[in-house]
User: Which sequence fits this backbone?
């Protein structure tokens, strides 16, 4: 692998002292996933990373970024000693950004950050080498790690920026210094830390404070807070808009779900655009237009980018759909699973329910004879004082008319259970692991099942159980038969 940081380069970037020469090929903060050649960063969280430095070096780490010589180590070990480890990591990130030739693109938003980042990875990969954040590396650790990992010869870098509290986005955006930045949408999320959705909009719009001179600010249209976003965008650089509102630079005309795909019809300054996203959901269609705007801002051909959107599918936990085969021989003994268990707020819950409502169950193959649309929902977290009302309001969503049964996990979801019509009430438990124990009894062949909830609700344990209902080798045996 190519050398990412030499000891001299890393010391110059951080102002630290290298006890030995080293050449690191990667960056790691976790000894469980560390690779030989990584620079281990001894951050302090629940445990102090210094406690794991010896283990990291024994596993082949090239060196460790530390603020002191850890127990079990000495100056004979390759250490980069700095005053503060997090500040050292941030300095490494800024240096990684400064030396890179890449066009840097940043993404934030209440919903769709990670999906948009992965869409960008897919469309940009056909037009150059891409470096993008892993998983949801979007916080005060994740952004500098992503920048510190940025190869000098990458053509594009995609940086995801998130927040939980006011004042978090702007410093990360200034560290990333993007050529273009996009806000996917603004919706009720993290209301425990913000007084209003307007406050969230101002925080999201602060991503534009990091734009380089002449940068491009990409904003969604058709929101109640779009004026706030537009004003911030126009002050920061060149504004480009996307969404359903007339006059949008990338205007969404229609998004039609066709099986496992979404066919998107749009307009870009009078030029019609027709493309397909290989997953169902109008929200994916809208975000795809923002991705096209980012790709164009990066100097890519938007027509090729639109075609390459068809190569993208959502990652696990973010709306990924798969068929779970419970029998190797009989392919009818199966159900469809939407795994959307990584994040949830009212906006993303609404989008997921619309997808479930549009899915087609299969009749005549299970115990119930009629295929059902089933929602398995966990708590939406960080919604503040209105959390009970926001959970109960799900019962009034238009998609509920087509959903047969709703199973729930979490204390907040008790409000939804009370609001649901009795015929749609499934099982409710305070903890997701209890619902996971019951999961195999809640579904039937022919069903379409959505699992959705905030990561902290741990409803992903239900996904794990449902996937284990699939027989080993069955998916391969039935591949191409559907």
Assistant:
């Amino acid at each position: 692998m190519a050398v990412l940081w030499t000891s001299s380069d890393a010391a110059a970037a951080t102002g630290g002292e290298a006890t030995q020469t080293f050449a690191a090929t990667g960056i790691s903060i976790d000894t469980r996933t560390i690779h030989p050649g990584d620079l281990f960063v001894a951050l302090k969280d629940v445990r102090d990373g210094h406690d794991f430095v010896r283990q990291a070096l024994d596993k082949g780490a090239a060196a460790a970024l530390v603020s002191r010589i850890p127990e079990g180590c000495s100056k004979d070990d390759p250490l980069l000693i700095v005053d503060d480890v997090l500040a050292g990591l941030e300095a490494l990130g800024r240096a990684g950004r400064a030396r890179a030739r890449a066009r840097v693109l940043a993404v934030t938003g209440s919903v769709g950050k990670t999906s948009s980042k992965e869409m960008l990875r897919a469309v940009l990969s056909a037009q150059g080498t891409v470096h993008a954040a892993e998983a949801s590396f979007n916080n005060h650790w994740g952004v500098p790690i992503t920048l510190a990992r940025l190869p000098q010869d990458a053509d594009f870098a995609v940086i995801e920026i998130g927040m939980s509290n006011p004042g978090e986005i702007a410093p990360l955006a200034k560290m990333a210094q993007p050529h273009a930045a996009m806000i996917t949408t603004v919706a009720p999320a993290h209301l425990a830390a913000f007084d209003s959705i307007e406050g969230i909009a101002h925080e999201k719009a602060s991503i534009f404070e990091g734009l380089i001179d002449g940068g491009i600010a990409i904003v969604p249209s058709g929101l109640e807070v779009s004026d706030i976003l537009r004003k911030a965008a126009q002050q920061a650089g060149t504004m480009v808009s996307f969404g359903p509102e007339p006059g949008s630079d990338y205007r969404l005309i229609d998004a039609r779900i066709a099986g496992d795909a979404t066919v998107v019809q749009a307009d870009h300054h009078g030029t019609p655009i027709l493309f397909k996203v290989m997953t169902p959901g109008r929200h994916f269609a809208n975000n795809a237009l923002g991705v096209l705007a980012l790709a164009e801002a990066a100097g890519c051909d938007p027509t090729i980018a639109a075609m390459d959107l068809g190569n993208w599918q959502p990652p696990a936990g973010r709306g990924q759909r798969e068929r779970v085969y419970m029998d190797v021989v009989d392919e009818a003994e199966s159900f469809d699973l939407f795994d959307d268990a990584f994040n949830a707020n009212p906006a993303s819950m609404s989008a997921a329910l619309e997808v479930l409502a549009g899915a087609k169950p299969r009749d005549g193959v299970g115990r119930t004879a009629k295929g059902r649309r089933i929602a398995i929902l966990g708590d939406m977290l960080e919604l503040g004082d209105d959390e009970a009302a926001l959970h109960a309001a799900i019962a009034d969503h238009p998609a509920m008319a087509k959903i047969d049964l709703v199973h729930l996990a979490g204390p907040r979801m008790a409000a939804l259970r009370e609001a649901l019509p009795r015929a749609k009430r499934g099982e409710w438990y305070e903890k997701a692991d209890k619902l996971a124990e019951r999961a195999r009894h809640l579904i039937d062949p022919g069903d379409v099942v959505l699992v959705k909830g905030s990561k902290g609700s741990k409803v992903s344990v239900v996904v794990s159980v449902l996937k284990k209902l699939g027989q080993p080798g069955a998916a391969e045996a039935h591949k191409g038969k559907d």
Summary: The chain has 16 helices and 22 strands.
